[in-house]
Design a protein that fits this description.
Radius of gyration: 18 Å
Shape: globular
Largest sheet: 7 strands, parallel
Strand content: 5-15%
Strand order of the largest sheet: 1-2-3-4-5-6-7
Structural class: alpha/beta
Order of helices and strands: HEHEHEHEHHEHEHEHHHH
Helix content: 40-55%
Length: about 280
Amino acid sequence: IVTPFDPRDRVDEAALRRITRHLIENGVHGIMTTGGTGEFPHLTREEKRRVTGIVVEETGHRIPVIAGTAACSTSEAIALSQDAQSVGADAVIVTAPYYFGLPESALEGHYRDLASAIDLPVILYNNPLYTGNNLSPALVARLAEVEGVIGLKQSNDNMGELVEIVRLVGDRISVCTGIDSQFYPALCVGSRGVFSTAANVMPAQMVEVYRLTQSSKHEEARDLHLRLQVLNRLLEYDPGYVSPCKEALAMMGMPAGGVRRPLPDLTEPERGELREALRTLELL
């Protein structure tokens, strides 16, 4: 879920509650807070705790709330995870530490220490493009044995690694893709779902791709997935996906505010392309 900001660049609590209700009403199966789409690098510790707490309050535990608690240091990741637990999150999701390149032994130790220090389930989050540290299939397999580790968000765009992880641990933990463009293909090879930026904008449609696939209506699921790609591809702008997501919400009458600097706003041509995609999907 996005973190909406008001005109003074503060967390907009009313808008966050509204977007949360919108997602629940459209059938999402869970909400992840304070992740990349939620601009976690630009939030203070208190803002992260408050955002997760608001979403927990608004969901009323009808669906799981999974708090992003990534940090460069193990001690900070533990502290953020304890904050999430204190406000009622159901699980935490944690990228590999970033900035320093780390050997697999250090990455494994990070997750083992985290899982042993908290009482919440842990979801691994592999996003090497942003962290610089890839969680290899072999490492994921070792971490799947750690008590408390229940899943993986795989945002490595190497589809072969997703397939190999499903082969190794798909019967033990919930392997999900983190790339909207891979959603249907990932389901076809045994992924359990998607942690989705696009579902902020078109939650009912993303849920329908899942439902159709689970019902073995593969031709319909594939066709819908390809239709949604007109928007999915625009939520993968370089250098970021947050601006188009927030712009799309605003165009649909659900203002989420701007992005925090230094993230850039969209250009006018990008806004025009985004607006046309929303019209094509009848979201305007």
